Amino acid sequence: MCAAAVAVALFAGCTSDGKSRVPEVTIPVETVAVATAAAATATVVPTTVVPTTVVPTTVVPTTATTVAPSAEDELRAATKAQWGDFRATLLNLETDDLSTMRNWYASPRLADSGLVLLKQDKAQNVTFRRNNPDVFEVRIESVTLLSADSATVETCLTDNLIAVKVVNGQDQVQDNSLASNRFKETWVRKSVRWLLESVERHSGAGTPCD
Predict the structure, then answer these.
(1) Quick check: pTM over 0.90?
(2) pLDDT for the residue 64
(3) Region of residue 72 (left: phi > 0; alpha: psi -120 to 50; beta: else)
(4) Which among 34, 88, 92, 171 could disulfide-bond with 96, CB atoms 3.0 to 4.6 Å apart, if both were Cys?
(5) For residue 129, how many other CB atoms are within 10 A of its CB?
């Protein structure tokens, strides 16, 4: 290959006399018209931001609905509490001044008559102790409303406290049996509180509550 062919191998050939033959290549000049686009002036319309008015949510507090207990519910609760205080009084008869039980009666006169037996036991040095097993049950069998402020409650009470009397310095057991007694109580409402008017025993010891 001729020397010229090294540089222009794609376009040149060699003549017989060794002279390079370079074909005349006419490269058309292409005039590229560059269109000058006028810069479009964009009109920027300012965006008006309307502030959002946040309306505070008013939280309405939920009022708890208080359901007043019925008269029957009040009487059941009062009866159980009264008998609970009665038993506590028995267990502390040596030192108790009976004021706890007095507060359950509608008047001092009714309390005096209703607490006669407790006064007798106290005067005779009778004390009460827990038995084994310690059994105590207040079963309310009926509640009868006589009016808006008066009612009767029938109750069966089961207890097995040991009654002990001190004779000549020695304990003598007076009672050591499981006893069930039925009572009918008359209640009146005074100053939004139920109080006792009377307590009657309907059946004696040993009568089962079933």
Answers:
(1) no
(2) 60
(3) alpha
(4) 92
(5) 15
